[in-house]
Predict the structure.
Amino acid sequence: MELPNILKSLPGEVRPLVVTDKMMGQVGIVDIICARLREAGLTFGIFDEVLPDPTDEMVLAGIDVLEQGGYNCVIAVGGGSPLDAGKAIAVMSQGSRNILDYRPPKEYAGEALPLVAIPTTAGTGSEITHHTVLVHTATREKISCRGEAFMPWAAIIDYELTKTKPKRLIADNALDTLTHAIEAYVSRKRTMFSDRIALESMRLVGRYLTRAYLDPTDMEAREGLMLSATLGGLAFTNASIALVHAMSRPLGGTFHVPHGMSNAMLLFAVTRYSIPGAKDRYADCSRAIGLADPDDQDDVAVEKFLAGIKEYNKIFAVPTLTDLGIGADDFLREIERMADEAITSGSPNNNPRIPTKQDIVEIYRTLVTA
Protein backbone atom coordinates (compact mmCIF):
# COMPACT_ATOMS: atom_id res chain seq x y z
CA MET A 1 0.00 0.00 0.00
CA GLU A 2 1.26 3.47 -0.93
CA LEU A 3 -0.15 5.13 2.17
CA PRO A 4 3.15 5.55 4.10
CA ASN A 5 4.90 7.05 1.07
CA ILE A 6 2.03 9.47 0.53
CA LEU A 7 2.10 10.56 4.16
CA LYS A 8 5.87 10.95 4.25
CA SER A 9 5.67 13.46 1.40
CA LEU A 10 4.09 15.86 3.88
CA PRO A 11 6.49 18.29 5.58
CA GLY A 12 7.64 17.71 9.16
CA GLU A 13 6.64 14.95 11.54
CA VAL A 14 3.48 13.21 10.37
CA ARG A 15 1.00 12.04 13.02
CA PRO A 16 -2.20 10.77 11.36
CA LEU A 17 -5.58 10.10 12.92
CA VAL A 18 -7.42 7.19 11.30
CA VAL A 19 -11.14 8.01 11.10
CA THR A 20 -13.37 5.02 10.48
CA ASP A 21 -16.22 2.90 11.87
CA LYS A 22 -16.40 -0.31 13.88
CA MET A 23 -17.18 -2.41 10.81
CA MET A 24 -13.84 -1.57 9.20
CA GLY A 25 -12.17 -2.95 12.29
CA GLN A 26 -14.29 -6.10 12.27
CA VAL A 27 -13.44 -6.96 8.66
CA GLY A 28 -9.73 -6.35 9.17
CA ILE A 29 -9.20 -3.32 6.94
CA VAL A 30 -8.15 -1.07 9.82
CA ASP A 31 -5.62 -3.71 10.92
CA ILE A 32 -4.03 -3.68 7.47
CA ILE A 33 -3.71 0.10 7.49
CA CYS A 34 -2.34 0.21 11.04
CA ALA A 35 0.24 -2.45 10.18
CA ARG A 36 1.49 -0.33 7.28
CA LEU A 37 1.71 2.75 9.50
CA ARG A 38 3.66 0.85 12.17
CA GLU A 39 6.05 -0.59 9.57
CA ALA A 40 6.73 2.98 8.44
CA GLY A 41 7.47 4.05 12.01
CA LEU A 42 4.57 6.51 12.16
CA THR A 43 2.75 7.49 15.33
CA PHE A 44 -1.01 7.42 14.78
CA GLY A 45 -4.36 7.31 16.53
CA ILE A 46 -7.75 5.81 15.75
CA PHE A 47 -11.22 7.34 15.98
CA ASP A 48 -13.66 4.56 15.09
CA GLU A 49 -16.89 6.00 16.46
CA VAL A 50 -18.36 7.02 13.10
CA LEU A 51 -21.96 5.89 12.58
CA PRO A 52 -24.14 6.07 9.46
CA ASP A 53 -25.19 9.66 8.72
CA PRO A 54 -22.46 11.32 10.81
CA THR A 55 -23.53 14.22 12.97
CA ASP A 56 -21.86 17.44 13.99
CA GLU A 57 -21.54 16.08 17.54
CA MET A 58 -19.73 12.99 16.22
CA VAL A 59 -17.29 15.23 14.35
CA LEU A 60 -16.63 17.30 17.48
CA ALA A 61 -15.85 14.07 19.36
CA GLY A 62 -13.35 13.19 16.64
CA ILE A 63 -11.75 16.62 16.88
CA ASP A 64 -11.28 16.07 20.64
CA VAL A 65 -9.38 12.83 19.92
CA LEU A 66 -7.34 14.61 17.23
CA GLU A 67 -6.31 17.42 19.54
CA GLN A 68 -5.64 15.26 22.59
CA GLY A 69 -3.29 13.07 20.55
CA GLY A 70 -1.58 15.94 18.77
CA TYR A 71 -2.41 14.49 15.35
CA ASN A 72 -1.83 16.69 12.32
CA CYS A 73 -3.44 14.86 9.40
CA VAL A 74 -6.38 12.53 8.80
CA ILE A 75 -6.80 9.15 7.11
CA ALA A 76 -10.50 8.49 6.40
CA VAL A 77 -11.28 4.82 5.76
CA GLY A 78 -14.63 3.28 4.85
CA GLY A 79 -17.81 4.18 3.05
CA GLY A 80 -19.38 7.58 2.65
CA SER A 81 -19.96 8.18 6.36
CA PRO A 82 -16.33 7.74 7.52
CA LEU A 83 -15.08 9.70 4.51
CA ASP A 84 -17.48 12.56 5.20
CA ALA A 85 -16.67 12.52 8.92
CA GLY A 86 -12.94 12.52 8.22
CA LYS A 87 -13.26 15.44 5.84
CA ALA A 88 -15.29 17.37 8.39
CA ILE A 89 -12.76 16.69 11.16
CA ALA A 90 -9.94 17.88 8.90
CA VAL A 91 -11.78 21.12 8.13
CA MET A 92 -13.67 21.95 11.32
CA SER A 93 -10.62 21.36 13.51
CA GLN A 94 -9.01 24.31 11.69
CA GLY A 95 -12.06 26.52 11.28
CA SER A 96 -15.47 27.08 12.83
CA ARG A 97 -16.86 24.17 14.83
CA ASN A 98 -20.47 25.23 14.25
CA ILE A 99 -21.88 23.18 11.38
CA LEU A 100 -24.32 26.00 10.55
CA ASP A 101 -21.37 28.14 9.48
CA TYR A 102 -20.91 25.73 6.52
CA ARG A 103 -24.56 25.61 5.50
CA PRO A 104 -25.26 26.28 1.81
CA PRO A 105 -25.00 28.50 -0.08
CA LYS A 106 -21.74 29.13 1.80
CA GLU A 107 -18.60 27.54 0.37
CA TYR A 108 -15.59 27.15 2.62
CA ALA A 109 -12.07 27.47 1.22
CA GLY A 110 -10.14 28.09 4.44
CA GLU A 111 -7.56 25.98 6.22
CA ALA A 112 -7.82 22.21 6.58
CA LEU A 113 -5.56 19.39 7.72
CA PRO A 114 -4.24 17.11 4.94
CA LEU A 115 -6.62 14.21 4.45
CA VAL A 116 -6.07 10.88 2.70
CA ALA A 117 -9.36 9.22 1.68
CA ILE A 118 -9.50 5.43 1.31
CA PRO A 119 -12.97 4.35 0.12
CA THR A 120 -14.14 0.80 0.77
CA THR A 121 -17.42 1.15 -1.10
CA ALA A 122 -18.11 2.05 -4.72
CA GLY A 123 -20.73 4.76 -4.69
CA THR A 124 -20.38 8.03 -2.84
CA GLY A 125 -17.38 9.43 -4.71
CA SER A 126 -16.56 11.39 -1.54
CA GLU A 127 -12.88 10.62 -2.04
CA ILE A 128 -12.83 12.97 -5.03
CA THR A 129 -15.36 15.68 -4.10
CA HIS A 130 -15.40 18.98 -2.24
CA HIS A 131 -18.63 18.07 -0.44
CA THR A 132 -19.31 16.46 2.92
CA VAL A 133 -22.73 15.75 4.40
CA LEU A 134 -23.41 16.01 8.13
CA VAL A 135 -26.57 15.86 10.22
CA HIS A 136 -27.19 18.86 12.48
CA THR A 137 -28.05 17.06 15.71
CA ALA A 138 -30.43 19.70 17.06
CA THR A 139 -32.66 19.88 13.97
CA ARG A 140 -31.90 16.53 12.20
CA GLU A 141 -31.21 18.54 9.03
CA LYS A 142 -28.70 17.01 6.64
CA ILE A 143 -26.30 19.77 5.63
CA SER A 144 -24.16 19.47 2.51
CA CYS A 145 -20.98 21.38 3.39
CA ARG A 146 -19.10 22.57 0.32
CA GLY A 147 -15.85 24.20 -0.63
CA GLU A 148 -12.33 23.44 -1.74
CA ALA A 149 -11.21 22.82 1.85
CA PHE A 150 -13.29 19.63 1.86
CA MET A 151 -11.38 18.14 -1.07
CA PRO A 152 -9.10 15.29 0.09
CA TRP A 153 -5.39 15.91 -0.29
CA ALA A 154 -4.95 12.40 -1.69
CA ALA A 155 -7.09 9.33 -2.35
CA ILE A 156 -6.19 5.64 -2.52
CA ILE A 157 -8.77 3.85 -4.66
CA ASP A 158 -8.52 0.05 -4.57
CA TYR A 159 -11.50 -2.03 -5.65
CA GLU A 160 -10.23 -5.01 -3.66
CA LEU A 161 -11.24 -3.13 -0.52
CA THR A 162 -14.87 -3.60 -1.58
CA LYS A 163 -14.71 -7.40 -1.26
CA THR A 164 -16.45 -7.41 2.11
CA LYS A 165 -19.38 -5.31 0.88
CA PRO A 166 -22.77 -7.13 0.94
CA LYS A 167 -25.24 -7.16 -1.95
CA ARG A 168 -27.45 -4.50 -0.39
CA LEU A 169 -24.54 -2.05 -0.33
CA ILE A 170 -23.45 -3.01 -3.85
CA ALA A 171 -26.86 -1.96 -5.14
CA ASP A 172 -27.29 1.15 -2.97
CA ASN A 173 -23.80 2.45 -3.72
CA ALA A 174 -24.02 1.85 -7.46
CA LEU A 175 -27.44 3.50 -7.66
CA ASP A 176 -25.93 6.44 -5.77
CA THR A 177 -23.19 6.58 -8.40
CA LEU A 178 -25.78 6.41 -11.15
CA THR A 179 -27.67 9.32 -9.61
CA HIS A 180 -24.46 11.36 -9.36
CA ALA A 181 -23.72 10.82 -13.02
CA ILE A 182 -27.27 11.49 -14.22
CA GLU A 183 -27.59 14.68 -12.20
CA ALA A 184 -24.18 15.92 -13.34
CA TYR A 185 -25.18 15.33 -16.96
CA VAL A 186 -28.52 17.16 -16.71
CA SER A 187 -27.32 19.88 -14.31
CA ARG A 188 -27.53 23.50 -15.39
CA LYS A 189 -23.88 23.80 -14.26
CA ARG A 190 -22.67 21.02 -16.55
CA THR A 191 -19.61 21.45 -18.76
CA MET A 192 -18.16 19.55 -21.70
CA PHE A 193 -15.65 18.02 -19.26
CA SER A 194 -18.28 16.84 -16.75
CA ASP A 195 -20.45 15.50 -19.59
CA ARG A 196 -17.75 13.11 -20.80
CA ILE A 197 -17.01 11.62 -17.42
CA ALA A 198 -20.68 11.45 -16.40
CA LEU A 199 -21.54 9.44 -19.52
CA GLU A 200 -18.64 7.05 -18.88
CA SER A 201 -19.72 6.60 -15.27
CA MET A 202 -23.25 5.71 -16.43
CA ARG A 203 -21.90 3.31 -19.03
CA LEU A 204 -19.88 1.46 -16.40
CA VAL A 205 -22.84 1.20 -14.01
CA GLY A 206 -25.01 -0.13 -16.82
CA ARG A 207 -22.42 -2.74 -17.75
CA TYR A 208 -21.39 -3.94 -14.29
CA LEU A 209 -24.10 -3.34 -11.67
CA THR A 210 -26.23 -6.41 -12.36
CA ARG A 211 -23.13 -8.58 -12.70
CA ALA A 212 -21.72 -7.46 -9.35
CA TYR A 213 -25.09 -7.79 -7.62
CA LEU A 214 -25.74 -11.31 -8.88
CA ASP A 215 -22.15 -12.44 -8.34
CA PRO A 216 -20.31 -10.46 -5.64
CA THR A 217 -17.14 -12.46 -6.43
CA ASP A 218 -16.97 -10.94 -9.94
CA MET A 219 -13.89 -8.78 -9.47
CA GLU A 220 -14.02 -7.25 -12.95
CA ALA A 221 -17.50 -5.96 -12.13
CA ARG A 222 -16.31 -4.70 -8.73
CA GLU A 223 -13.46 -2.84 -10.41
CA GLY A 224 -15.83 -1.34 -12.96
CA LEU A 225 -18.16 -0.07 -10.25
CA MET A 226 -15.24 1.39 -8.28
CA LEU A 227 -14.12 3.31 -11.35
CA SER A 228 -17.67 4.45 -12.06
CA ALA A 229 -18.00 5.78 -8.49
CA THR A 230 -14.84 7.85 -8.78
CA LEU A 231 -15.86 9.19 -12.17
CA GLY A 232 -19.35 9.97 -10.87
CA GLY A 233 -17.85 11.90 -7.97
CA LEU A 234 -15.58 13.80 -10.32
CA ALA A 235 -18.56 14.59 -12.57
CA PHE A 236 -20.83 16.00 -9.90
CA THR A 237 -18.10 17.88 -8.06
CA ASN A 238 -17.60 19.79 -11.33
CA ALA A 239 -21.24 20.07 -12.43
CA SER A 240 -23.06 19.86 -9.09
CA ILE A 241 -26.05 17.77 -8.08
CA ALA A 242 -29.71 18.53 -8.56
CA LEU A 243 -33.20 17.65 -7.36
CA VAL A 244 -32.75 13.98 -6.40
CA HIS A 245 -30.02 14.83 -3.91
CA ALA A 246 -31.85 17.90 -2.68
CA MET A 247 -34.83 15.73 -1.72
CA SER A 248 -32.77 12.72 -0.64
CA ARG A 249 -30.90 14.48 2.15
CA PRO A 250 -34.02 15.50 4.14
CA LEU A 251 -35.52 12.04 3.63
CA GLY A 252 -32.38 10.38 4.94
CA GLY A 253 -31.90 12.81 7.81
CA THR A 254 -35.49 12.58 9.01
CA PHE A 255 -36.09 8.85 8.68
CA HIS A 256 -32.53 7.48 8.81
CA VAL A 257 -32.61 6.09 5.28
CA PRO A 258 -29.13 5.37 3.88
CA HIS A 259 -28.11 7.94 1.29
CA GLY A 260 -27.80 5.67 -1.75
CA MET A 261 -31.10 4.01 -0.90
CA SER A 262 -32.96 7.30 -0.54
CA ASN A 263 -31.59 8.44 -3.91
CA ALA A 264 -32.84 5.24 -5.51
CA MET A 265 -36.27 5.67 -3.91
CA LEU A 266 -36.61 9.14 -5.44
CA LEU A 267 -34.91 8.63 -8.80
CA PHE A 268 -37.98 7.51 -10.78
CA ALA A 269 -40.35 10.25 -9.59
CA VAL A 270 -37.78 13.04 -9.91
CA THR A 271 -36.71 11.86 -13.36
CA ARG A 272 -40.31 11.69 -14.58
CA TYR A 273 -40.87 15.25 -13.33
CA SER A 274 -37.59 16.56 -14.80
CA ILE A 275 -37.61 15.01 -18.28
CA PRO A 276 -39.57 17.89 -19.92
CA GLY A 277 -36.70 20.21 -19.00
CA ALA A 278 -34.00 18.19 -20.78
CA LYS A 279 -35.50 15.34 -22.78
CA ASP A 280 -32.48 15.03 -25.05
CA ARG A 281 -30.12 14.74 -22.07
CA TYR A 282 -32.17 12.09 -20.31
CA ALA A 283 -32.32 10.23 -23.62
CA ASP A 284 -28.51 10.33 -23.73
CA CYS A 285 -28.45 8.89 -20.22
CA SER A 286 -30.74 6.06 -21.26
CA ARG A 287 -28.47 5.18 -24.17
CA ALA A 288 -25.30 5.41 -22.09
CA ILE A 289 -26.64 3.04 -19.44
CA GLY A 290 -27.79 0.63 -22.12
CA LEU A 291 -31.50 0.94 -21.43
CA ALA A 292 -32.15 2.45 -24.87
CA ASP A 293 -30.63 1.49 -28.21
CA PRO A 294 -28.18 3.94 -29.83
CA ASP A 295 -30.60 4.74 -32.66
CA ASP A 296 -33.73 5.17 -30.53
CA GLN A 297 -35.46 8.52 -30.86
CA ASP A 298 -35.49 10.68 -27.74
CA ASP A 299 -39.16 9.98 -26.93
CA VAL A 300 -38.52 6.25 -27.04
CA ALA A 301 -35.26 6.52 -25.13
CA VAL A 302 -36.77 8.41 -22.19
CA GLU A 303 -39.67 5.96 -21.93
CA LYS A 304 -37.14 3.13 -21.80
CA PHE A 305 -35.23 5.11 -19.20
CA LEU A 306 -38.24 5.34 -16.89
CA ALA A 307 -39.08 1.69 -17.44
CA GLY A 308 -35.46 0.77 -16.76
CA ILE A 309 -35.40 2.66 -13.45
CA LYS A 310 -38.55 0.82 -12.39
CA GLU A 311 -36.93 -2.47 -13.32
CA TYR A 312 -33.79 -1.59 -11.38
CA ASN A 313 -35.97 -0.92 -8.34
CA LYS A 314 -37.35 -4.46 -8.63
CA ILE A 315 -34.06 -6.22 -9.37
CA PHE A 316 -32.15 -4.46 -6.63
CA ALA A 317 -35.01 -4.53 -4.10
CA VAL A 318 -35.19 -0.77 -3.60
CA PRO A 319 -37.56 -0.47 -0.62
CA THR A 320 -40.76 1.49 -0.25
CA LEU A 321 -41.64 3.55 2.82
CA THR A 322 -43.74 0.61 4.03
CA ASP A 323 -40.80 -1.76 3.61
CA LEU A 324 -38.76 0.53 5.86
CA GLY A 325 -41.50 0.73 8.49
CA ILE A 326 -42.17 4.43 7.82
CA GLY A 327 -45.84 5.16 8.36
CA ALA A 328 -47.70 7.27 5.81
CA ASP A 329 -48.98 9.69 8.45
CA ASP A 330 -45.52 10.18 9.93
CA PHE A 331 -44.08 10.79 6.47
CA LEU A 332 -46.79 13.22 5.40
CA ARG A 333 -46.32 15.25 8.58
CA GLU A 334 -42.70 15.91 7.61
CA ILE A 335 -43.18 16.70 3.91
CA GLU A 336 -43.48 20.48 4.18
CA ARG A 337 -40.36 20.77 6.32
CA MET A 338 -38.40 18.39 4.08
CA ALA A 339 -39.42 20.42 1.03
CA ASP A 340 -38.16 23.58 2.73
CA GLU A 341 -34.83 21.88 3.47
CA ALA A 342 -34.54 20.71 -0.13
CA ILE A 343 -35.04 24.25 -1.43
CA THR A 344 -32.63 25.73 1.13
CA SER A 345 -29.86 23.43 -0.14
CA GLY A 346 -29.86 25.29 -3.46
CA SER A 347 -29.55 22.09 -5.46
CA PRO A 348 -33.05 22.28 -7.02
CA ASN A 349 -31.85 25.37 -8.93
CA ASN A 350 -29.43 23.11 -10.84
CA ASN A 351 -32.25 20.87 -12.03
CA PRO A 352 -33.23 21.09 -15.71
CA ARG A 353 -36.78 21.77 -14.57
CA ILE A 354 -36.67 24.00 -11.51
CA PRO A 355 -39.38 22.98 -9.04
CA THR A 356 -41.56 25.02 -6.73
CA LYS A 357 -41.97 23.94 -3.15
CA GLN A 358 -45.36 22.46 -4.08
CA ASP A 359 -43.76 20.44 -6.87
CA ILE A 360 -41.34 18.95 -4.34
CA VAL A 361 -44.18 18.19 -1.95
CA GLU A 362 -46.04 16.35 -4.69
CA ILE A 363 -42.96 14.32 -5.64
CA TYR A 364 -42.54 13.30 -2.02
CA ARG A 365 -46.19 12.26 -1.94
CA THR A 366 -45.55 9.72 -4.71
CA LEU A 367 -43.45 7.72 -2.24
CA VAL A 368 -46.54 7.11 -0.11
CA THR A 369 -48.29 5.29 -2.96
CA ALA A 370 -45.17 3.55 -4.34
Summary: The two ends are 46 Å apart (CA to CA). The domain at 3-160 is CATH 3.40.50.1970 (Rossmann fold).
